[in-house]
Amino acid sequence: MHDEGQDFAPGDERAFFAETQPGKGQGLAARSPLGSGGEEHYHGHRDRLRLRFREGGDRALADYELLELLLFRLIPRRDTKPIAKALLARFGSLTEVLGAPAHLLTEVKGVGDSVATDLKLVAAVAHRMLKGDLKGRQVLASWSSVIDYCRAAMAFETREQFRVLFLDKKNALIADEVQQTGTVDHTPVYPREVVKRALELSATALILVHNHPSGDPTPSRADIEMTKLIVDTARPLGITVHDHIIIGKDGHASLKGLKLI
């Protein structure tokens, strides 16, 4: 007997959760890892979660239930609540689960390469949506959207990234580019290259952004000095640096808000 959709590639974690294939003399009850009636139990649970989501949206579900609902689609024929709770216990929040590197996701029992890739796809779609919210809008008038976008893009990276939001004369986003990727606590930044790229894009303003993988967004002395150097390099060419935002898992810091530039 062969179930539709049960062809799993070697190493696909979904095979781990597939029901045991029945042998000679085995019935459907023997196939279920939960025993007789087990399938009906979690299938009923899935139906109830889907109904709550349809009627009340995401506000009707806890984080682990939203994650569980997503995992229904990725890991069929299995109770995914323990996996959802294990992911949240490991990473701390739904945002951190989606922001975690794929290789760390696969360290959670029940999550293999396929599920990790699908979770990262969901994160990428959410990131693209946030970026779409900024395109063509006056960035300074949508500051919360800027922070949300930067957090989604960088807060959970394991290495420092230095990126630049290039703006036109109306402060609308022209481009968002990662200029450098460094180590866990350092990224080399070249002010002349930043300004050169701004001139190539005809940008008249910049927002500098980088992350602290430690989670603490407090600016270092090197962060402050580097920012001032870029400001001083850009100013004579008519390019304004609006801010330098530091993103961490524990929040964010604005050098302009802290009156450091």
UniProtKB/TrEMBL annotation:
GO biological process: proteolysis
InterPro entries in the cross-refs: MPN, RadC_JAB, RuvA_2-like, UPF0758, UPF0758_CS
Residues covered by the MPN domain: 139-261
PROSITE patterns hit by this protein: MPN, UPF0758
A Pfam family this chain is assigned to: RadC
Keywords: Hydrolase, Metal-binding, Metalloprotease, Protease, Zinc
Ranges for region Disordered: 19-42
Keyword presence, Transmembrane helix: no
Gene Ontology molecular function: metal ion binding; metallopeptidase activity
SUPFAM superfamilies: JAB1/MPN domain (SSF102712), RuvA domain 2-like (SSF47781)
PANTHER family: DNA REPAIR PROTEIN RADC, UPF0758 PROTEIN YEES-RELATED
Family that this chain belongs to: Belongs to the UPF0758 family.
Annotated protein name in UniProt: MPN domain-containing protein
Naturally occurring in which organism (per UniProt): Hoeflea olei
